[in-house]
Amino acid sequence: MTPFLKARLGKLIPLLGSDKDGEVLATARAIVTALASEGADLHDLAASVNPNASSRIKPTRRAFSVPPAFDSLTHFERRAWLDVLIDAEWLTPFERDTVEEVRNRVRLGQCYDPHWRKKRRIDELLARAAAKGVRA
Fold first, then answer.
1. Structure pTM?
2. Which residues contact 122 (CB under 8 A, 6 or more apart)?
C-alpha cells in the first residue's frame, strides 16, 4: 500500500463507527473505491492487518475496478445503463422512479444535466450494478 492509500484509509475507517447507516454505507464504498484505485480489495486490506490469516482465493471474474459514473458516460452509454437499471429487480420503488425519470429525460435529448443529487443516486446505482456484475 502506498502512503497516500494508508492515510486515506486511516481517515475513512473511523467513519465506519457512525450511527447513521447511510454514512457507514458511503464510507464502506469509499474504502472499496480507494482500494480499487491501487488494484487492491478488502481481502488485501484484511491481509495487511493480519498477515498470518489464510488468504482467500480471489474470484476470477472481477467487477469494475472503478464503477461507471454518470458524468463520464457518453449519451448512448447513459441510455444503455439506464435501460439496464430500469429492469433491475433489486431497485426500491424510489430508486426505480429516479431511474425512470432520468431515463425519460435522457431519451429526449443529449443536453440533459440532472440535479447533483439525482446524479449521485444514479452513480450509487451504477456502482451497485457494476458490483453485481451487471454490464450495459
1. 0.52
2. 70, 82, 85, 98, 99, 102, 114
